[in-house]
Design a protein that fits this description.
Layout (H helix, E strand, L loop, with lengths): L5 H12 L3 E2 L2 E2 L6 H16 L3 E4 L5 E4 L6 E6 L13 H16 L7 E6 L11 H6 L5 H6 L9 H8 L16 E7 L4 H4 L4 E7 L1 E10 L3 E2 L11 H19 L5 E10 L5 E2 L2 E10 L2 H21 L3 E10 L2 E2 L2 H14 L4 E6 L4 H5 L5 E6 L15 H20 L1
Helix pairs in contact: 1-3, 3-12, 8-9, 10-12
The protein binds zinc ion.
């Protein structure tokens, strides 16, 4: 069985943490100077590991193995959210790198190997899963022309040119090359920690639907316009949100969540009845049937409100990610590996957050595992996992891949 080198694994993770250090976390948004430097560093570590490394035209970093036998693709991302944690992304990339090195050093692994990948911009500074979707051929040149940094507005073309990636070809997956895709990630929640568990075997990644709901009424004087004659877009939207919340409460599954992340009234003054109001509703679940019944209920409520007035209601779908199931055989391999290294300390669970694995699952079998997050904290500089848990997770991850490759 291949065995990982804990010092080498932790050493690489600590080194990656020095690019854009912020308090105990990192600030390494996509294509920032620190991010570009970390991508370059990663190619060097890949080369040291005997991989053919390159950075493509959208910033994906890939290290190709030279072996001729069975192969998996494994990785995650290395850019961070703004002023965020050091492990969200890097853990999965360095696990993949360490697994590739361990397999290479182990005579029992034979001619099997791992291609290591860091997908660019999983954190969505410029778009939605741009790196992994580009790797599947789902991102056009026009999409890149349009993409801008969500905080600073910098065009993606400009950022790519500054990084030195402009004009490079974009790599595309050859699905026949792989048995499948593996990704490890910190849990970013408290399921493992509260259960005193060490490994989460991901069953599937939740889907999410985003809808913009707009109410149009009549802007008017808030003192002289009687209640009966008002067409108050703001109040209409508040009532709708409340009705949707009540209805979703009846339709939800165990882990369904929904959020009104934004609500805006126009003109937004104390003495003016809003003539226009807009909200964004998001709902998530791991089961497409649950999402679809909530969507149907949403439409019903909005249509009914439109019929009865007093405002015109419209809806627009902003995002429709369907849930992605993880491969049953890979789940079993992760569970078997966990039973060996951490007996009784693994649990099967869905992922409530999005990851590149859900994109890869569209074309090849995918498997994913979680390690505990201290306090469940993530997307914050305090995000952390103990060295002990990091090392244990890497053992399980590497062993699971070896089991899949050996079959
Ligand atoms: Zn992540």
């Amino acid at each position: 069985m291949p065995s990982i080198n804990p010092d080498r694994l932790l050493g690489d993770l600590y080194k990656l943490r020095t690019f854009g250090t912020y308090k105990t976390g990192v600030h390494r948004p996509t294509f920032s100077p620190e991010d570009v430097a970390s991508r370059q560093w990663l190619t060097e570590r890949m080369t040291d590991a005997g991989l053919d490394a390159q950075i493509d035209g959208i910033g994906n970093v890939v290290g190709f193995t030279r072996v001729s036998g069975r192969k998996v693709l494994a990785g995650s991302h290395i850019e961070s959210q703004n002023y965020a944690g050091w492990l969200d992304g890097p853990l999965g990339v360095i696990y993949a790198l360490e697994a590739a090195r361990s397999l290479r050093e182990d005579p029992t692994t034979g001619d099997a190997g791992i291609d290591v990948i860091a997908f660019c911009d999983e954190e969505g500074h410029f778009g939605i899963f741009l790196g992994s979707r580009s790797f599947l051929g789902q991102v056009s040149e026009a999409d890149i022309d349009k993409a801008r940094d969500r905080m600073r507005g910098t065009p993606m073309r400009e950022a790519l040119a500054k990084a030195g990636y402009a004009g490079r070809p974009r790599l595309k997956i050859d699905p026949r090359r792989y048995v499948g895709y593996f990704e490890a990630h910190i849990e970013q929640g408290r399921t493992l920690e509260t259960g005193n568990l060490k490994v989460g075997v991901v069953t599937g990644l939740v889907g999410l639907f985003n809808y913009r709901i707009t109410a149009v009424g009549q802007q008017n004087h808030a003192g002289t316009t009687m209640m009966w004659e008002r067409r108050d877009a703001g109040l209409t939207l508040i009532r709708l949100a409340s009705a949707i919340d009540r209805r979703f409460g009846q339709l939800k599954a165990e882990r369904t969540v929904w959020t009104f992340g934004s609500m805006k009234f126009e003109p937004g003054e104390p003495s003016i009845i809003p003539g226009h109001a807009q909200a964004v509703l998001q709902f998530r679940d791991a089961d497409l049937a649950v999402l679809e019944r909530m969507e149907a209920a949403l439409f019903e409520i909005l249509d009914e409100a439109n019929r009865t007035g007093p405002c015109e209601i419209s809806r627009e779908n902003l995002r429709r990610n369907v849930p992605a199931a993880m491969d049953a055989g890979f789940q079993q391999a992760l569970e078997d590996a966990a039973a060996h290294h951490a007996p009784g300390l693994a649990i099967r669970m869905p992922s409530a957050a999005g990851h590149d694995a859900q994109i890869m699952a569209q074309v090849i079998p995918a498997g994913m595992m979680f390690v505990p997050s201290i306090g469940g904290i993530s997307h914050h500089w305090a995000e952390d996992t103990s060295d002990e848990d990091i090392v244990l997770g890497a053992r399980v991850f590497t062993d699971a891949i070896a089991r899949v490759l050996r079959v």
